[in-house]
């Protein structure tokens, strides 16, 4: 099965490489040459020109996977030089990035009006997805799901993928996933900050080892705390926490739905406040910043 991937950033390059490893015929586009060169080493056919890639597409339906920043997705498809020039009735477009679910609903309607099927896919797994498999939350048509399910199964760890509803549902569920993630990381970080501030001064690396097995709070995030104490310089890390917006989207959605989501709301506020230099020495903020680096490869600042 052939699939075309557009965007070879941190996640897109893993998507392309994992599909290639799983036996798919992968064509990949990226504007920057460095990313194309890296991915081409794995056997993926890479292109710097969209039209040149399109000339190599075969099969029916043709499948186009977008792994682009949500701010440019619409223009990439419908702009003057957009992908829409080459799309045909029956083609399938998948947006695997962190797009806002309401925009995905609009995009689906626009594409469906041209006979093009659209799936929005929330993709989780960070920089570990290539090796361990991604978690994939998909919104779209039940009728056309069988055409694309093999793609999601190949990208997953085996069973951690699924069609969660109509168009928009995939990105909605991933948005909530990231909101939960905000709250979980903040709770862990605050707990470690309390221990670090106490007169007991426990060995936090040793505490983490205890938490990792048999405890109620054992989790991948706690495993990543072990990596932090093994490899990172917590003290000299800035407590500025960058964010991409999904936590705020989740908090806003909760308000629209009349749901009390104070933990997520507070964790978003903490990130907003971390831009103030006076909050960048907070131990909990340093931990959240380092957790983001561990699972997503997100950059951190040093003091």
Structure description:
This protein has 303 residues and is an alpha/beta fold. The chain contains 13 helices and eight strands. An eight-stranded mixed sheet has the order 3-2-1-4-5-6-7-8, sandwiched between helices. Helix 5 links the parallel strand 5 and strand 6. It is globular and about 65 Å long. The termini are far apart.
Structural class: alpha/beta
Read across the widest sheet, the strand sequence of neighbours is 3-2-1-4-5-6-7-8
Largest sheet report: 8 strands, mixed
Note poorly predicted spans.
Answer: none
Question: Helix fraction?
Answer: 40-55%
Radius of gyration, whole Å: 21 Å
> What pattern of helices and strands is seen along the backbone?
EHEHEHEHEHEHEHEHHHHHH
Strands, count: 8
How would the global form be characterised?
globular
Keywords:
single chain, 303 residues, alpha/beta, eight-stranded mixed beta sheet, 8 strands
Question: Could you give a quick summary of the protein structure above?
Answer:
The chain is built from 13 helices and eight strands. The protein has helices at 12-21, 33-40, 50-55, 70-78, 101-112, 129-132, 145-155, 169-197, 204-212, 220-231, 246-257, 262-273, 283-296, and strands at 2-6, 25-29, 45-47, 63-66, 92-95, 117-124, 134-139, 156-165.
Task: Record the SSE blueprint.
Elements: E1 2-6, H1 12-21, E2 25-29, H2 33-40, E3 45-47, H3 50-55, E4 63-66, H4 70-78, E5 92-95, H5 101-112, E6 117-124, H6 129-132, E7 134-139, H7 145-155, E8 156-165, H8 169-197, H9 204-212, H10 220-231, H11 246-257, H12 262-273, H13 283-296
Parallel strand pairs: 1-2, 1-4, 2-3, 4-5, 5-6, 7-8
Antiparallel strand pairs: 6-7
Helix pairs in contact: 8-11, 8-12, 8-13, 9-10, 10-13, 11-12
